[in-house]
Design goal:
This protein is mainly α. Helix 1 packs antiparallel against helix 8 and helix 4 packs antiparallel against helix 9. The longest helix has 39 residues. The protein is globular.
């Protein structure tokens, strides 16, 4: 449970730091490139003396799944940007968060995890709370491109699922190598898009990328460790909704954002769902 808590805090820190970087970052793709480079560097540090390409059992899974995860990470960001332009923030954020359905259902139907009735009820309440938190009044002028939203949900869901897939199929001693391949692949994709856009990078893009990269790496690492200790069908919903709760509390305390009645109700449902999940 400790690793899950640390993963939640790290994930919330990523969103908080990104919020703080608004107004400073001029080149988003340059910032993401620096962020992934920082994540890859931390992965190397945790690998210690372990070779990058230690050919043997499990290396194919670590390398292949790592490359796929890295591509999905960046694709998720690009899809989110496109959806915000076409569908607005509300729908886009909702469908991205609902991606948690994919790793949850995968845990049940593919990896045969069997939650208890109370846990199923808790997970259901957690997913309902995502709807309540995000479905405020829809933004004016936001046209609904349903296919783009579905693609975002699927991409987000599979990007989250890869950690559980690696936990089930990969070698635990290669998890740091898997994370390095993941962030190295994401960095290469971000670099390619940055070059394509031909935007200059400033020191704030680099600095913000490094600051965001530290909790970004830690959230991925702690999530892997949490999945090794707990059932994925529990980890993913709790990780998703509690990150939303922490972000909402931080926004209330530090950014003076108002919590609507819907969000207060949703947070109450989340607390109930967590109690049911842990019964």
């Amino acid at each position: 449970m400790i690793y899950l808590g640390l993963a939640i805090l790290s994930s919330a820190m990523v969103s908080t730091f990104m919020r703080c970087s608004e107004g400073y970052v001029k080149n988003n793709m340059g910032m993401f490139f620096t962020n992934y480079i920082a994540c890859a560097a931390l992965s190397l540090m945790f690998m210690g003396s372990q070779p990058l390409f230690l050919w043997g059992p499990g290396i194919g899974v670590a390398l292949g799944l790592g490359l796929l995860t890295g591509i999905l990470y960046l694709a998720n960001f690009v899809l989110l940007e496109q959806n915000i332009k076409k569908n607005g923030v509300v729908l886009s954020a909702t469908f991205m968060k609902l991606g948690v359905l994919i790793p949850t259902l995968m845990a049940i139907f593919v990896f045969r995890e069997r939650p208890k009735i109370m846990q199923i009820l808790g997970v259901s309440l957690a997913i309902i709370s995502i709807f309540i938190i995000h479905f405020e009044k829809e933004e004016r002028g936001a046209a609904t491109y349903k296919l783009l939203l579905i693609i975002l949900l699927i991409c987000s869901g599979f990007a989250d699922s890869t950690a559980n897939i690696y936990d089930k199929l990969g070698q635990s001693n290669l998890k740091d190598a898997y994370l390095f391949y993941t962030f190295a692949a994401a960095a290469l994709c971000a670099f390619a898009l940055w070059i394509k856009e031909k935007q200059k990078i400033c020191r704030y893009d680099i600095l913000c990328g490094i600051v965001i990269g530290i909790p970004n790496y830690l959230s991925a690492r702690f999530l892997l460790l949490a999945l090794h200790q707990m059932k994925a069908v529990i980890v993913y919903p709790v990780y998703s909704v509690m990150t939303l709760v922490v972000i909402s509390i931080v926004s209330l305390l530090f950014f003076k954002e108002h919590l609507s009645k819907k969000k207060v109700i949703a947070i109450g449902l989340i607390m109930v769902s967590l109690a049911l999940i842990n019964l």
